[in-house]
Amino acid sequence: MNNESNPPQKKKRGVTIIDVARASDVSYATVSRVLSGYEFVRESTRNRVMEAVERLGYVANLQARSLKGGRSRIVGLLAPNLDNGYVGTIARGIDGELAGNNYDLMLYTSHSHRGKEAFYVGAIMNGLADGLLLIAPLVPMTYLNELREQNFPYALIDQADPTENSSVVEATNWQGAYEATRYLNQLGHTRIAFITGLLAVRSAVDRMQGYKAALTDCNIPVREELIIEGNYQQQTGYEATKKLLQSVNPPPTAIFASNDLSAFGAMDAARESGLRIPEDISIIGFDDVPQASFVYPKLTTVRQPLEEMGRVAAKMLLAQIEDRSHPPQRITLPTELVIRDSCGPNRRREHEDLVEKDRRPPIENP
Amino acid sequence: MNNESNPPQKKKRGVTIIDVARASDVSYATVSRVLSGYEFVRESTRNRVMEAVERLGYVANLQARSLKGGRSRIVGLLAPNLDNGYVGTIARGIDGELAGNNYDLMLYTSHSHRGKEAFYVGAIMNGLADGLLLIAPLVPMTYLNELREQNFPYALIDQADPTENSSVVEATNWQGAYEATRYLNQLGHTRIAFITGLLAVRSAVDRMQGYKAALTDCNIPVREELIIEGNYQQQTGYEATKKLLQSVNPPPTAIFASNDLSAFGAMDAARESGLRIPEDISIIGFDDVPQASFVYPKLTTVRQPLEEMGRVAAKMLLAQIEDRSHPPQRITLPTELVIRDSCGPNRRREHEDLVEKDRRPPIENP
DNA sequence: CTGAAAGCGCTAACAA
DNA sequence: TTGTTAGCGCTTTCAG
């Protein structure tokens, strides 16, 4: 009864393991055992302790637990930002998996930390979190090296480690791009432009390769002027499309953007140029972020199972946390073509675009 | 040279304050002083310590620091989800402010914790975080009470505390809705429908009231059949609009949705009914989430300064963390009408809709 | 099966 | 100006 009357700064400490011990008349070590599920505790003792825990509303102090060398039951997530649904969707998967295992998520968005990232990675490895998930599009090798050196659990999401030595969850980027391109071709398109992602990123390269392979398999020559390097941003998609529409002649009838965001930019540019989608030009994206079905027309895109990727990554990470010698795995999840409204048949198929074997005398319309 | 050859489970502990002390030949208390910016340390000592810190790559152990009763320098954020840009944008503001003050963000998304929230709030108050930010649309009173009881720093974002006793950051909901409605009226609309938000939420009620007040000030009677209760979801916006279009006669020429998400739903429904936006029907939203300018046509909406709200909330929270007796504040940030492409003049102005003072003989065009 | 006790890394009196 | 020291709450041997 002595903490009632000091209005400011009252430093109310929570209920500790000691309070519980007193209340249940055992040593606090025993309480700790009960709490951590130690097997050899007499049933009655356990019950007595649990009852006290309930009654007192005891909540474990995570700092103390982790300080002692145990787990903090916190997983760090380093992501570039939360602006578009991309990270949010992955985070939901992660979050769901973690919650089921009694872990918490600590979020770091690198956009605001520039340069302090090293500090964070340090703090995280220092016990703040038990593991680290990275969505960072460009993971500085320095972190990876340090992480690996310390044998600290981590996993990369949608981003291959250049040294092929990390746990990675990704999607079938090559395959997805291949299918999207074939789809466009089935629709009659042969002048299919491609806006790349950041080519420093592995997935971006894979997507481009899938695109090229599909073209080749369709007997369409790969024309470099139809490939524009982008960086996964909407603005860049916009600019790339403007350029494509203005300076390539004849202009493409379809545009494959390496991600939805740049596809949105492409849509804007196309419309600004007076083109209707999909009547005059087809546009396809990649990712299937939530807003892909908000835009008009709804975007046809290659779906990456983002939530699933988050879930799987979390699962992998947890496995590594449990067993630090768990070898790194690479899991590749399937993509899926989601056909919506932004692609249509090529209406201005021109003969000079036809490939060799198609060159035959034009057939007169009756 | 003794930790090279035990491949698995090597439990490498980080560099501690003690290592630094040894390296710089001072007591570790002095190192602590230097690190916490204590004033009275001899310049040369400070330099020596800092140099060792650098050289050894020392990183503070946050758990230990917070355990000791100090700050954890972590702020918790409880949000419903990350699916749409709403929370993401607010989070960016928070994040920016925190980073500038050397705080970290710990994220809890309630969608996956259902029912464990109480546990989290407990853990957070128990020292895991120094303060809590809530974007939860429906904040259970139990938390608020507990938080307040313990005098634990917290702030609500875009959600008024029913008991008017918390720190709150919100926007001028009433005002924003009022202006949006007036704008629609200036465009010639008089049959303006309104899709509400979750009416259990204060901001939703404020917006509705702003709408009604504007109508009244424009001498337009409030017609209950034009007001449909929604819940801030896209799907509901869609359904409400369908209903509005089918069962109200004559149908509204403009729809004011209480948030952008439901406005997107409304756009879908309108289009499905064969209406062009904005030629046949005007649609206006509220929030200005990032995708508002992705959709087509770009959504005219009332901008809430989400990022700013996050920043201000974080600032308020930090102030409370510094001084626990800091009284709760309520800060209201201005909204702003963002005119884009989804609203246009009413083309089917009917005379029976004109208000009294407008009844005058139509003027002939020259 | 349970208790005693030694810290985990750090901060904050209190001494010197 | 700097050192010494007592814990913060908890896990984990080591002894009963």
State the name of the first-level CATH class of the largest domain in chain A: Alpha Beta
C-alpha geometry of chain A: elongated
Q: What is the assembly state of the chains in this entry?
A: homodimer
Percentage of β-strand residues of chain A = 5-15%
User: Tally the helices of chain A: what do you get?
Assistant: 12
Helix content of chain A: 40-55%
Through-space gap between termini of chain A: 101 Å
What is the CATH topology of the largest domain in chain A? Rossmann fold
Average per-residue pLDDT of chain A, rounded, comes to: 86
> Which ranges of chain A are low-confidence, i.e. pLDDT below 50, for 5 or more consecutive residues?
1-11, 351-366
CATH architecture of the largest domain in chain A, please?
3-Layer(aba) Sandwich
* Overall tally of domains of chain A: 3
What's the name of the CATH homologous superfamily of the largest domain in chain A?
A: Response regulator
What does this structure look like?
- The structure is a homodimer of 366-residue chains.
- Chain A has 366 residues and is an alpha/beta fold.
- Chain A folds into three domains: 17-60, lambda repressor-like DNA-binding domains (434 Repressor (Amino-terminal Domain)); 74-171 and 307-334, Rossmann fold; 173-304 and 337-353, Response regulator (Rossmann fold, 3-Layer(aba) Sandwich).
- In chain A, 40% of the residues lie in helices and 14% in strands.
- Chain A contains twelve helices and twelve strands.
- In chain A, strands 2-1-3-4-5-11 form a six-stranded parallel beta sheet, with helices on both faces.
- In chain A, helix 1 (17-24) crosses helix 3 (43-56).
- Chain A starts with 16 loop residues before the first helix and ends in a 28-residue tail after the last strand.
- The model of chain A is unreliable at 1-11 and 351-366 (pLDDT under 50).
- Chains A and B meet through helix 4, helix 5, strand 2, helix 6 and helix 11 of A and helix 4, helix 5, strand 2, helix 6 and helix 11 of B.
- The first copy, chain A, binds a DNA duplex (16 and 16 nucleotides) through residues 13-14, 16-18, 26-30, 32-33, 35-36, 40-42, 45, 60-61, 63-70, 127.
